[in-house]
C-alpha cells in the first residue's frame, strides 16, 4: 500500500519558553607537579585571573560561581551565565600557569540549565533552601498568588 | 564592501593646558591600545589592533580620528572612557576622550567635524565674557584666508544674532 508522500520539508522552529540561563561546566585542573593544591578560594581566583588575562576587566567581572570543588581530585563544577560561556571556556583553555607551575584545565562536561539542575526543586536543594522550593511549587500551582507573596 | 572599517571621532579633553603637547599619534595610539588591553584583555587587544591606526589628529582642538575594523568597533568604543592619561616624552597628563561621532568613512566624519566645529565656534562666541574677546574672535574668524571659507565667515556673522 502506497504511503502518502510526506510533505516537503518545512522549516520548523522551536522556541523554548525559558532558554537556558546558566551553563554548568564540569572541569578538572591538572597540576602535573606534586605541589600544594589550591583551595577553593584560590581556585576561584585562578578562574577569574584567567578570564582577566584573556578578556580583561569585562571578562573578570563575569559572574562565575564555583558550585562544587574537590581539592583531592582538583575537579569542580562551575556555573556561568550563558552569554559568557564562550569567554569562560576559552579563558580556561588558554590558561597555562598557576603560580609559575605548569597546569591545564580539562573541560569534561558542559550542560545548559535545561538539565537535571533546572527543576526548581534541584535549584533550591543546591542552595539548601527547601522552604523556597515549596514556595516555588506553590506559586507554580497558583500563579495568581505571585503578586501577593513577598519573596524573602 | 569586503573590508569594512569604522572611523571613530573623539576629542581629547584635559584640564591641564600642557596636555596639548602630548597629543601625538603615537601617544594617543598607545593610550587607547593600553586601555583596550586592560578592559578587554588579550583577545580584545588583538581583535581591535588588526586595522587600528590614528588617522587624523589636531593638537589645537584635540580632535582625534581613529580607525578600526567594523567587527571590533564596539570593543574600541567601550574602552575609550577608560583612557585616563596621555604619556609622551616621560610626561603624563590626565585627560579623557569624548566620543563625538562614529562613521563608516572618513568623509562622513569630516562632514560631521565641520558642522561640529561651526557649532563650537558659535558657542565660544556666546560664552565670551567681555567685548574684547568677542572682537578678537570675530577678527580672527574674518581673517581666515582660504577663499572657500570666506562665505563661511559671512554665514557665521549672520548667525550671531539668531543664536
Automatic annotation (TrEMBL), chain B:
Gene3D superfamilies, per database record: Ribonuclease P, Pop5 subunit
GO cellular component: multimeric ribonuclease P complex; nucleolus
One GO BP annotation of this record: tRNA 5'-leader removal
UniProtKB keywords: Nucleus, rRNA processing, tRNA processing
Compartment(s) where it occurs, according to its Swiss-Prot or TrEMBL record: Nucleus, Nucleolus
Main location: nucleus
Molecular function GO terms recorded: ribonuclease P RNA binding
One Pfam entry name: RNase_P_Rpp14
Presence of keyword tRNA processing: yes
Role this protein plays: Component of ribonuclease P, a protein complex that generates mature tRNA molecules by cleaving their 5'-ends. Also a component of the MRP ribonuclease complex, which cleaves pre-rRNA sequences.
Family that this chain belongs to: Belongs to the eukaryotic/archaeal RNase P protein component 2 family.
Subunit and partners: Component of nuclear RNase P and RNase MRP ribonucleoproteins. RNase P consists of a catalytic RNA moiety and 10 different protein chains; POP1, POP4, POP5, POP7, RPP14, RPP21, RPP25, RPP30, RPP38 and RPP40. Within the RNase P complex, POP1, POP7 and RPP25 form the 'finger' subcomplex, POP5, RPP14, RPP40 and homodimeric RPP30 form the 'palm' subcomplex, and RPP21, POP4 and RPP38 form the 'wrist' subcomplex. All subunits of the RNase P complex interact with the catalytic RNA. Several subunits of RNase P are also part of the RNase MRP complex.
Entry protein name: Ribonuclease P/MRP protein subunit POP5
